[in-house]
Design a protein that fits this description.
The chain is built from five helices and no strands. The protein is mainly α and about 190 residues long. Helix 2 crosses helix 4. The longest helix is centred in the middle third of the chain and has 61 residues. It is elongated. It starts with a helix and ends in a 14-residue tail after the last helix.
């Protein structure tokens, strides 16, 4: 009886394996159907930045003012049958609230993206400053080592002063020699020239 139960379990496992598609790691998975629409977050972010940039311009304020004035003038002075928003202008208020409810998150999204860019730039600047400091410290150590090495090397001024001292010493010796051999006699060798 236990053998029959085991045989049935094996048969069920084989049927399940045949029903399931074989998953291969060397092939990409099939895309599953999604209920929500897909969008590119980067493209949406760029669009929100463009909108936020436009909302922060004088052109937007001028256009908004013109539209509101036209709205109010139309709904006050147009014939009764053509007016679509009567005096308390509730529809205008609703439209302005709708515009503000979309503008605020778009502006916040644009600010968040700008903060992210600023954070990346700040990190890059910090790393660049660290590299500059390290380079400056290295060059400072190298210059100090060169100065220490030059302390033991003969410089032009030192050589000039030593040569001047030698010249003075030679002049002094030449003066002593003249004292020993006055200028009265012929100079040169005892053998006449041929």
């Amino acid at each position: 009886m236990a053998d029959r139960a085991q045989e049935r379990d094996r048969e069920r496992d084989r049927d399940r394996e045949r029903a399931l598609p074989r998953i291969r790691l060397d092939q990409p998975r099939l895309r599953r159907a999604r209920l929500l629409p897909e969008y590119d977050p980067e493209a949406f972010g760029r669009l929100s930045e463009r909108i936020a940039r436009f909302l922060g311009t004088g052109r937007f304020i001028v256009w908004m003012t013109v539209i509101i004035i036209a709205w109010v003038v139309w709904n006050v002075s147009a014939p009764e049958g053509l007016r679509f928003d009567k005096y308390p202008f509730i529809f205008l208020t609703l439209m302005l609230s709708l515009q503000a409810s979309y503008a605020a998150p778009l502006i916040l999204l644009a600010q968040n993206r700008q903060d992210d860019r600023d954070r990346v730039n700040l990190e890059q600047d910090r790393k660049q400053n660290e590299r500059s400091i390290a380079d400056t410290e290295y060059l400072t150590r190298e210059i100090a080592a060169l100065r220490m090495g030059l302390g033991e090397v003969a410089t032009r001024d030192w050589m000039r002063s030593e040569l001047q001292d030698l010249l003075k010493e030679l002049e002094h010796r030449d003066g002593e020699r003249r004292d020993l051999f006055p200028d009265g006699g012929p100079r040169g060798s005892d053998v006449p020239d041929r």
